[in-house]
């Protein structure tokens, strides 16, 4: 029966402490092998094939995913499936990153002769360099721990954590060596918030065609208000033939109301802003948002141009939906 004084929070902290201690141990054992492995991957004309079984396999999937999303061609191969045909995905120019804490997992050890015949390089991520995997590998990344976070020291905890962090460290080195930038990351994450922030252009989200509120410079104030109300964008672009010569916003209308006696006799040209702020259709959405916000008086809508031609309008609301803050 469990001791009634057992404190779950304190015990949880002790698990953190145990795993942190083991991570520090693995960190302190790091050597030039991780640089050699990074060089091997960078020089390879093939891909990285991460393989493992059980809990190591689950961690291997994450490592492969991290590598793939940061510029390294990588896939995961379940070691057991490799024994039944999936070895066909490995070629001689590949780097096989084999994960086994013991280094003697039957499924992985059984793959080694075939991998040798294929001619791929083998990197062992193991805690036992004298294991069958360790002895067969071209390089070893030591993930060895002395104890698991598990109270009975059986369930992989510290060992899987150290494997995960070793994979992250390798991926981070490759990111630095490849000079992989946020915009590169966004290419692999087009559906994520970062992808939208860094890939979306103004032309992808602008209002265009019949959605653009237009008036002539000679249009009456009444026509301007009707057009602004109908299009619901909070502004009207003032045109002189095909050339945009100004913009009228709701703020301009409010200011014009102070001229009560002449208000309804005003024309678009009398109240429009001539030196208006605009953006190009190929500008990035995040840059357009900065243009609207990083100023003494913020604006809520921008005309979008292609050269001198008006092609659309973009609202701060639409930009925030894509870019966020």
Describe the structure.
The chain is α/β, with parallel strands linked by helices and 325 residues long. The protein folds into 2 domains: 8-180, Rossmann fold (3-Layer(aba) Sandwich); 202-323, CBS-domain (Roll), CATH 3.10.580. The chain is built from 15 helices and 11 strands. The chain has helices spanning 8-28, 33-43, 54-69, 79-82, 106-118, 132-136, 158-178, 182-187, 193-199, 202-205, 221-231, 250-256, 268-271, 285-293, 316-323, and strands spanning 48-52, 74-78, 95-99, 121-126, 139-142, 214-216, 235-240, 243-249, 279-280, 301-306, 309-315. It has a 5-stranded parallel sheet, sandwiched between helices. Helix 11 (221-231) links the parallel strand 6 and strand 7 (235-240). The protein is elongated, with a radius of gyration of 31 Å. It starts with 7 loop residues before the first helix and ends with a helix. The model has no long low-confidence stretch (mean pLDDT 91). InterPro entries: CBS_dom, CBS_dom_sf, GutQ/KpsF_isomerases, KdsD/KpsF-type, SIS_dom, SIS_dom_sf, SIS_Kpsf. Belongs to the SIS family. GutQ/KpsF subfamily. This is KpsF/GutQ family sugar-phosphate isomerase. Keywords: CBS domain, Isomerase, Repeat. One of its GO terms (biological process) is carbohydrate derivative metabolic process.
> Which CATH class of the largest domain?
Alpha Beta
Class derived from helix and strand content: alpha/beta
State the distance separating the first and last CA atoms. 52 Å
Strand order of the largest sheet: 2-1-3-4-5
Topology as a string of helices (H) and strands (E): HHEHEHEHEHEHHHHEHEEHHEHEEH
* Low-pLDDT sequence parts: none
- The CATH topology label of the largest domain is Rossmann fold
What would you give as the CATH superfamily of the largest domain?
Glucose-6-phosphate isomerase like protein, domain 1
Mean pLDDT: 91
Q: Got a strand count?
A: 11
Query: Helical element count?
Result: 15
CATH architectural grouping of the largest domain:
3-Layer(aba) Sandwich
């Amino acid at each position: 029966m469990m001791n009634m004084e057992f404190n779950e929070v304190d015990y949880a902290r002790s698990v953190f402490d145990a795993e942190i201690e083991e991570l520090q141990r693995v960190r302190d054992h790091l050597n030039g092998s991780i640089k050699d492995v990074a060089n091997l991957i960078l020089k390879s004309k093939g891909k990285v094939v991460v393989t493992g079984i059980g809990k190591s396999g689950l961690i291997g999937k994450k490592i492969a995913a991290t590598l793939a999303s940061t510029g390294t061609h990588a896939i995961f191969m379940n070691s057991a499936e490799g024994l039944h045909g999936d070895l066909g995905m490995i070629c001689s120019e590949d780097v096989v990153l084999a994960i086994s804490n013991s280094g003697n997992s039957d499924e992985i050890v059984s793959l080694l002769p075939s991998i040798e015949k294929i001619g791929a390089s083998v990197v062992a991520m193991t805690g036992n360099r004298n294991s069958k995997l360790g002895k067969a590998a071209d390089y070893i990344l030591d993930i060895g721990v002395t104890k698991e976070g598990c109270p009975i020291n059986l369930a992989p905890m510290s060992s899987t954590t150290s494997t995960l962090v070793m994979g992250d460290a390798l991926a981070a080195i490759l990111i630095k060596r490849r000079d992989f930038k946020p915009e590169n990351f966004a290419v692999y994450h087009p559906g994520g918030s970062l992808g939208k922030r860094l890939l979306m252009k103004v032309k992808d989200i602008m209002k265009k065609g019949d959605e653009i509120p237009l008036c002539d410079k000679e249009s009456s104030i009444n026509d301007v208000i009707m057009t602004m109300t109908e299009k619901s964008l909070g502004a009207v672009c003032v045109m002189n033939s095909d050339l945009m010569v100004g913009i009228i916003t709701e703020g301009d209308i409010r200011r014009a109301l102070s001229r009560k006696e002449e208000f309804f006799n005003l024309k678009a040209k009398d109240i429009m802003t001539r030196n208006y702020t605009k953006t190009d259709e190929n500008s990035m959405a995040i840059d357009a948002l900065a243009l609207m916000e990083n100023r003494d008086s913020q604006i809520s809508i921008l005309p979008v141009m292609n050269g001198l031609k008006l092609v659309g309008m973009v609202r701060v609301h639409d930009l925030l939906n894509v870019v966020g803050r």
